[in-house]
From TrEMBL:
It comes from the Bacteria. One of its GO terms (molecular function) is 1,4-dihydroxy-2-naphthoate polyprenyltransferase activity. Pathway: Quinol/quinone metabolism; menaquinone biosynthesis; menaquinol from 1,4-dihydroxy-2-naphthoate: step 1/2. It catalyses: an all-trans-polyprenyl diphosphate + 1,4-dihydroxy-2-naphthoate + H(+) = a 2-demethylmenaquinol + CO2 + diphosphate. This is 1,4-dihydroxy-2-naphthoate octaprenyltransferase. PANTHER family: 1,4-DIHYDROXY-2-NAPHTHOATE OCTAPRENYLTRANSFERASE, UBIA PRENYLTRANSFERASE DOMAIN-CONTAINING PROTEIN 1. Belongs to the MenA family. Type 1 subfamily. Its EC number is 2.5.1.74. It is an enzyme of class 2 (transferase). Pfam families: UbiA. Conversion of 1,4-dihydroxy-2-naphthoate (DHNA) to demethylmenaquinone (DMK). The keyword Transferase applies. It is a multi-pass membrane protein.
Amino acid sequence: MATVSQWIEGARPRTWPAAVAPVAAGTGAAIWQLRGLDSLDAGTLLGVVLPRALLALAVALSLQIGVNYANDYSDGIRGTDDERVGPFRLTSSRAAAPATVKRAAIGSLAAGALFGVALIAVAGIWWALVVGSAAVAAAWFYTGGKKPYGYLGLGELFVFVFFGLVAVNGTAYAITLRFGWVALLASIAIGLLAVAIMLTNNLRDIPTDTIAGKRTLAARLGDRGTRWLFTATMLVPFVLMVPVMVAQWPVLLVLLALPLAIMPARTVLGGAMGRDLIPVLGATGKLELVFSVLLLAGLVI
C-alpha cells in the first residue's frame, strides 16, 4: 500500500505550477481590465475577483493532479513506465494497485469538474460547460483510452490549449465577462511555458517511449529538435510580454524571471540526458510560476 508521501510524489508536485500560473496570469489580466473600465474597487476585488480566482485555482489544480494520476495509471498498465528513469510512479512501482490509482485519477477529475460547475454558476457563463467538459476529457485521454493523443505527438498541443489559452482566458473571462488582448498574450506565454514542462519529461523519455511505441512530439522531433524547441518555449514568452510592458510598465517585473530560464536552457542545450534532466523539470516549473506571479504583480500595481 502506497504511503501518503508516495501519493503526493505520484501527484507530481513539480508540475503543479502549470496549474497555478494560468490562474495567476488570468487574474492579473482581469484586474488590469477592470481597472481600465473603472469598475474595480474593494468590493469588486473581494466579492468578485477573489472568489472566482480561487475557484479557478481549485479547478486547475484538481485537473493537473487528475491528469498526473491518469497518466500514471494508463502508462503503468501499458508497461510504458517499466524502464522509466524519471520520478516515482505509483502503478509501475507496484506501490499502489492500478485500480486504486485509476480511482484517484477519476476522483481528482471529478473534483475539478465540480469546482468548474461552481465557477460557471457564479459567473453565469453556462456555455462554458462545453469547454470544461472538453478539458476533463483531454485530461483523461492524454494517455487513456484505446488511442491516447499523447502517444500521437499531440500532448504539447493540448497542454498549450488547455493550460494556456483556455486556463488564462477562461480565468480572466470568468471574472470580467470580457475577452482582452492582455489575457490573450499572457495565455500564449503561459501555454508555451507549460509546453516546456512537458517537453522536459518527453525529452528525458525519448529512448523508453520509442521502445514502448509512444510517439510523443519529442520522439518525432528527435533529440536535437526537441532541445531547440524547449529553449524557444522558455524564451519566447518574454518577447510576448513586450507590448504589455509598453501598456503597463510595471510588467517589466517579468524580466526578473529571465535568469531562471538560463540554467534549464543551458542544461538542455548542453546535452543532459536521463536523470540529469529531472532538476530541469523543477526549474522549468519554478520559472513558469515566478513568471506568472511577477506578471500578476505588474498588472495589479
